[in-house]
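Whether sequence alone determines local backbone shape is best considered at the level of individual chains. For completeness, the protein is quoted in full, as a sequence line and a line of structure tokens:
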Amino acid sequence: MTVKHIVIWNLKATDAGEKAEASARIESALTALVGRVPSIRSLTVALNGAYPDKNADIAVVADFDDYEGLDEYQNHPDHLEAAGIIRSFVSGRSSIDYTY
């Protein structure tokens, strides 16, 4: 079993430069977790490429061996720190976790 964790966010910023800066900070905070949170099997940060008036701005897609690994990630101090950084830049969040 593998657990897929997907989170999408809308950014507070509306200016293109501010959005780019916020996206870069979020991407940096999340990619820094790889190798620091042992349960992460893969992690990708993606910026929206189409339909900016309808789609979210940025997403993370991560894989874990099981829900216990996802819980380890969610509660890891480095993830909690990254989540605080992310919250400072976003206005909305949606997520889904599923097995495949």
Q: What stands out?
A: The domain at 3-99 is CATH 3.30.70.100 (Alpha-Beta Plaits). The mean pLDDT is 97. The two ends are 6 Å apart (CA to CA).
